[in-house]
Write a structure and sequence with these properties.
The chain has 421 residues and is mainly alpha-helical. Helix content is 70%, strand content 4%. The chain has a 4-stranded mixed beta sheet. Helix 5 packs antiparallel against helix 6 and helix 9 packs across helix 14. It is globular and about 65 Å long. The N and C termini lie far apart (58 Å). The model has no long low-confidence stretch (mean pLDDT 93).
Length: 421
């Protein structure tokens, strides 16, 4: 790989890939905005009896606002990436931190990565504020106070430092100490870290942000307990989370591994769905468990990471890789930063593959839910969730192909109705 590119050639390749990725994302966003706007005047026939025109147009306006804001974010992120790489931002931070630490030492690498994380967080903060307190508030979803936003930010930063800094230190040390096959040792370390985090998250981290109250006895719990028994699913409890203190969006999810598995319902979900509809939503989530979708996604993620780390191992010794991305002096930390910062630019075209796999899993989970509860109840629940969450019923097909982990509403509902026949 030594003579694959010159520094100038790789710079031009990266710049082309960055511009192509940004233009593709903007084109998809414009298609989405125009498609949603064009179909906002009439409720799709299959939803006409359950969703009013006002709700449909509110969902369209919400989708358009988020998509347009996402276009600004895409452009800004691309500018920041170019500034950090071709513009010499990482090189400048490396020089700055080298005043306190020996260049390419472990301390220097940790300081460089941490400083970049801080700068990136500060630059992205205005976008988080606008998203939360302007867009989400405009459409009645935001329930978060400024105090809670600041508290969440402080907690996230502290937890990120406590967990992330030791991991970064371990990765950088392994990259420098384990020879040619350092990437395998890093992968094993990251694998162990990821599995441990999945195990400890529901018990130790999630309660720092939300209250999790055991579900009270009643029809909902009785139905869910019977469903879990039928499906052979064992969990560490049924919990209700106070999601309403941040947002009026509703959801339900599994979290944890092994005996730490929990089933969590947002309080907003329980408020808007009937007991039979809640049962159907959980049956869908159990479908993911029964079809081993979560395990498959974890294995796929781990396999991809192994491949990416191997590729980084090949690039780490190539001078053109650093110089082509604005870093004159190679270092372990710079290699790690540059690789994972530019990776999304070169992999965006493959997004439909991931989305396609996820949508197939959703269809399979829906089919399982229909076999264990009621497809009609799941349809009713989904329609309510589309309405209450202001999810568009008419996404652009190309935009959906790249971004949507769930099938479009019309296709998903039609598949469930066929199962009921």
């Amino acid at each position: 790989m030594t003579d694959l590119f010159s520094a100038t050639q790789f710079s031009l390749l990266f710049l082309f890939a960055l511009m192509a990725s940004v233009l593709l994302q903007l084109w998809l966003a414009l298609r989405h905005v125009n498609h949603v706007k064009r179909h906002s005047k009439v409720v799709p026939t299959e939803f006409a009896e359950q969703i009013t025109l006002a709700s449909h147009q509110r969902a369209a306006a919400y989708t358009i606002a988020k998509t347009r804001f996402g276009m600004l974010t895409t452009i800004f992120d691309a500018m920041i990436l170019a500034a950090f790489t071709l513009g010499g931002g990482i090189a400048w931070l490396s020089h700055l931190t080298s005043q306190w630490f020996t260049p390419d030492s472990l301390g220097h690498g940790i300081a460089l990565i941490a400083s970049l994380a801080v700068v990136s967080s500060v630059l992205s903060l205005p976008f988080s504020l606008v998203s939360t307190f302007v867009i989400e508030s405009r459409f009645g979803f935001n329930q978060m106070s400024a105090k809670l936003f600041i508290t969440d930010l402080a907690k996230t930063t502290l937890i990120g430092a406590v967990i992330g800094l030791p991991l970064i230190a371990a990765v950088l040390w392994l990259m420098g100490a384990m020879g040619e096959y350092w990437w395998l040792w890093v992968w094993l370390t990251w694998l162990g870290f990821s599995l441990t985090l999945m195990w400890v998250f529901p018990t130790f981290i999630a309660p720092l942000f939300n209250k999790f109250i055991p579900m009270e006895d009643g029809e909902v719990k009785t139905r869910i307990t019977a469903l879990l028994t039928r499906c052979g699913f064992q969990s560490n409890g049924l919990f209700v989370m106070d999601g309403s203190k941040r947002s009026s969006h509703g959801n339900a999810y599994f979290t944890g591994l092994g005996k730490s598995k929990r089933i969590v319902f947002f309080d907003t979900l329980l408020k808007h769905l009937s007991p039979s509809e809640i049962e159907a939503v959980l049956a869908h989530e159990l479908g993911h468990f029964k079809h081993r979708h979560i395990v498959k996604r974890i294995v796929w993620t781990f396999a991809l990471m192994l491949g990416f780390l191997w590729l980084l191992g090949q690039l780490k010794t190539q001078l053109w890789f650093y110089q082509g991305l604005g870093v004159a002096t190679p270092s372990t930390a710079a290699a790690l930063l540059l690789f994972f910062m530019v990776l999304p630019v070169f992999t965006f075209l493959f997004s439909p593959l991931s989305s396609m796999m996820s949508r197939r899993h959703e269809y399979e989970a829906d089919a399982f839910a229909a076999s264990q509860s009621s497809s009609a109840d799941l349809v009713n629940a989904l329609v309510k969730l589309y309405r209450d969450n202001a999810a568009t019923l008419t996404p652009d097909p190309w935009h959906s192909l790249f971004y949507d982990s769930h099938p479009p509403a019309s296709l998903r509902i039609a598949a469930l109705q066929r199962l009921a026949v």
